[in-house]
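INFO  loader      accepted 1 record
INFO  loader      residues=386
INFO  predictor   begin
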Amino acid sequence: MTAVIAILVDSYRELIAKKLFWFVLAISLLIVVSFGSIGFNDKGVSVGYGIYTIENEVLKEGSPLIKPFMDFAFASVIVTMWLAWGAIILALISTAEVFPNFLAGGAIDLVLSKPVRRTTVFFSKYLGSLLFVLMQVGIFCVGVLLVMRWRVGEWRWAILLAIPVLVLVFSYLYSIMVLFNILTRSTLPSLVLTLFAWLSLFTLHTTDGILLTQFRIRAEVDRDAYAKRIDWYEQRIEQAAQEGDNDAVNRYRIRLDSDEASLAEAQRRVDKWTPISQAANLATLLLPKTSSTTNIVQRQLQSSGGMNASSLMDALRGDKPEPPPPAEIYENDSKMEMYQRRDREIMRRAEEYENSRPAWMIIGTSLLFEGAVLAVACFIFVRRDN
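INFO  predictor   done
INFO  writer      dumping tokens
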């Protein structure tokens, strides 16, 4: 146990001695200060600590939308753009040389000359590197928590969930880099290969998302919309027939025939893209899910705030959170209005699908991948002559 603590302390000192550690910390604090500059008054949103005001009728001081708006800004903008991308890339750069430096220059010989198992040394160095992200994200989230208490008026404790979540996301990628570290014993190739692996994972999951939202869900939305229109036209045809209005019957029947053909086409697309989407989702099942893991923070904030992203966007636009409109509304809609309504419904269903995936499955399958990669890296580390 003493040896483990010594290695962790050594890793900690090595990390904080880097200028990049303080550079990332400075950027994080700058973002916290900038986030804290967002306020609300009787005219709308103030930025720059009151220097400039953006007039907004729905985000005035005292508005119930302030809390979900600030939650969304943190989870969807700051976490996604900075913590889940910028900070992690810089963290990978900072920790890329931990294992190569340890394996070179006799450092490992000095450690292994003491009665410490190689597996203990390996995982101690690995956990020591996670301290970088833990400290960075921890300081950042505490700062944001204080800002939210100031601006929103309550403690948004769900923000602290970002600390373990972002450490997990980093650990998925760092396990890959450690394997490349052990194989190449070089810093730059390991970093480049890791970033390439991350890009490949991002591409695969993006493809999965596009197949789901732009093909499968879009086809399902079209199918359901045409089914509603057909029901409405059938009712109108029956009503017109009872009233003896043959012109209306013929007019509605022409539209009914057109929509029935469109319904058949939409159903064909559903039948085509559903198995393809399911296969793509299955192909990514055991791969690390960085985006979905990060999204857990937003899901938790939405759960505690009582409003999801699509509902917030509707509220900010001034749209009432009503169920999908009846079919007769479509008859007088412009094509632009129809497309906008369809896109909002696609967004709502995609968000609903993502939120329906249990967190334990997202994290569990990702940790299985990480565990397998670390097992291979540790095996090579233990067996390789140094």
